[in-house]
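Q: My labmate handed me this sequence with no annotations at all. I'd like to see what the chain might look like in three dimensions before we decide whether it's worth expressing. Could you predict it?
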Amino acid sequence: MRIVALLPLAALFLSLLLAGEKEQPAPNPVEPVVTADEEDPTRWAEEISATLAARGPVARPVVFLGSSSIRRWSTLAEDMAPIEVVNHGFGGSRINDAVYWLEELLEGVEPRALVVFSGTNDISGDSPRDAAYVAERFDALVEAMRALGHDVPLVYIAISPTPSRSEHLAIVLETNQLIARRCAADPMLTFVDTATGVLDDEGEPDPRWFAEDRLHLNPAGYAAWTKAIRPSVEAAIAR
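A: Here is what I predict for the chain of 239 residues:
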């Protein structure tokens, strides 16, 4: 009798369990990586929200993504015209932040190409990341873009050797080499070597391309960037 009395309760419990499973959302195709030694990417939530709120309607733009050197590129639209662009730089960000926020930044956008300058802030301070880490995070960014259904060209801007971080020059150059090799092996990826042009005759970062903070580009630096990057963007969207 006890067994018979428990059967309706068991059936009810099973039906509730199955219903709960059906209501669970589908897993996100991109799993952001946040490990114990990563800075919390959600610290950028407010800035990302403001960036998206300020974005006007766009058709099929080229999306520029990265840290403060992208955000501070005030002449970007003019420099790339008539190519429609979206500036999604958020200052101080690291490459894992770009991976984490990529889905939100591309939501509602059908990019013709993605142009990325990210990883420079990983190679800074007293505990810089090594070249292998930044290159692996670059792989994760490419994977995330494609997992979101954006099988478009990606143009990677070389990490800049800057006077303010000259002690990390060797890591910067090694990182650029690793990412350049990855791009050479994939026809949808392009590496733009903007790093060599900001070095002086002795292979050191040349201050004449940088602002007073010796970290960000000055107008001459952005003009040099435009000259180097625009042909690669034009080639990418022509594919």
